[in-house]
Amino acid sequence: MSVPENNKTTSLTLLILLSLIWGTSFILMKRGLLVFSPGEVGSIRVVAASIFLLPIAIVHLKQLNGKHYLQLLASGLMGIFIPAFLFATAQTQLESSVTGIMNSLTPICTLLVGVFLFGQPFRTQSLFGIIIGLAGTVVLIFAKSGGSIGGINHYALLVITACVLYALNLNFIKYRITELKALTITSVSIMLISPLALTYLLGFTDFTHKLTAEPGAWQALGYIVLLGIMSTSVATILFNLLVKISNPLFTSSVTYIIPIVAVMWGLLDGEQLVIAHFIGMVAVIGGVYLANKK
After folding, report:
1. What is the domain partition of the chain in residue ranges?
2. What is the recorded membrane topology of this protein (predicted)?
3. Reduced to 3 states, what is the DSSP secondary structure of residue 145?
4. Is the pLDDT of residue 214 over 60?
5. What's residue 3's pLDDT?
6. What is the C-alpha to C-alpha distance for residues 193 and 49, in angstroms, rounded to an integer?
């Protein structure tokens, strides 16, 4: 399926904006992790996004029927809640630039999920691209944070899991929630998962103590709030809109540019990358391109 002609300019613009916003999200997570735990970063991110979108969510509740609430809760868990915790945890042992590179696995996961779970057609020529992309991912798994090469970095597997969840959600929105607008999907799904995040943040962490006792806590909080508003709220609205006007593989191609932005921020922040990181990045992006090539 190709992107309709009258939507190509809009789709391209959305892709660029999303790439810039999401490419910056990894360095924002890194800044937040200087003070807060991965669980705190993930939950603050969700709560901030929910507060930002709550007025919109309330207005859009009238568009929903009973089945929509369960669908949107599932979408929020797959596409926002669980990945927020997985990425924050992974970045405790991975450079932000490497996490951004590995996020490029999403289109391949989208293709595989679409084929095996949603009955989408599979082109045999895509297999070569999938193999190359997965090989690049393996290289990144063995490339250690701090510029060395060693055994498997198991934290990289958390990023892969998040990519699979993104792929599930992308296909789920496209083929199972066809009647709802992108803004409705985003605002209500975040609203539905926010009580889980708020309960965890206030009931199972020392978030409030850190705000008063830890140096730099308010600045770190600002980075995470910005992450929630831009990378979770605004970007998810744009992303779901892109899903609606294009096809899942085109939409997931936002990850072509994300690694470039993420690596740029990482290098500016003094992160060390070895040649294996760049080989893995080229392999993943090249594999994604070949897998999606018509």
Report:
1. 7-292
2. Multi-pass membrane protein
3. coil
4. yes
5. 43
6. 11
